[in-house]
Write a structure and sequence with these properties.
It holds the Pfam family DUF4440. This is DUF4440 domain-containing protein. With 129 residues, the protein is an alpha+beta fold. The chain has a single domain, classed as Nuclear Transport Factor 2, Chain: A (Roll). It contains three helices and six strands, in the order H-H-E-E-H-E-E-E-E. Helix 1 packs antiparallel against helix 2. The chain starts with a helix and ends with a strand.
Length: 129
């Protein structure tokens, strides 16, 4: 049986991939909101800090198509830092494409686990390379 730390790493990587799958969809806001805490912050390149809690600009406003509508993505050099049994950070390099346009960035997401056992996104950040 895998150790608790291995299970946390696996869970967080699955959540991060689910986040990117949502970000590459035609309508990302509903799926991203479901993965996120109500106080989540998003720091996208060349955009103001975005929150879900209704502060302007809203996540729904910022991720309107064609924002982050990629045909494919790949997370490489993923690293998971376990802060404690209920929090962790995933860091990685992202390569994504839409047609012949490429997107290269580093990223990190901080996740926390609620009392219900669900992992929720607390903060997501991307830096263009």
């Amino acid at each position: 049986m895998p150790s608790i730390h291995e299970r946390i790493r696996d869970d967080l990587l699955l959540r991060e991939r689910a986040l990117w799958t949502a970000l590459t969809s035609a309508d990302p806001a509903p799926a991203v909101e479901k993965l996120s805490s109500r106080e989540a912050n998003f720091i996208f390149p060349q955009k103001p800090v975005v929150t879900i809690d209704g502060t302007e600009p809203s996540l729904e406003d910022v991720v309107q198509p064609p924002f982050h509508r990629f045909d494919s993505f790949s997370l490489v050099d993923t690293r998971t830092i376990i802060l404690d049994l209920m929090a962790g950070v995933v860091t990685y390099q992202i390569t994504a494409s839409k047609g012949d346009q490429m997107y290269n960035a580093t990223g990190s997401s901080t996740w926390s686990q609620g009392s219900d056992g669900e992992w929720k996104l607390a903060c997501h950040q991307e830096t263009l390379l």
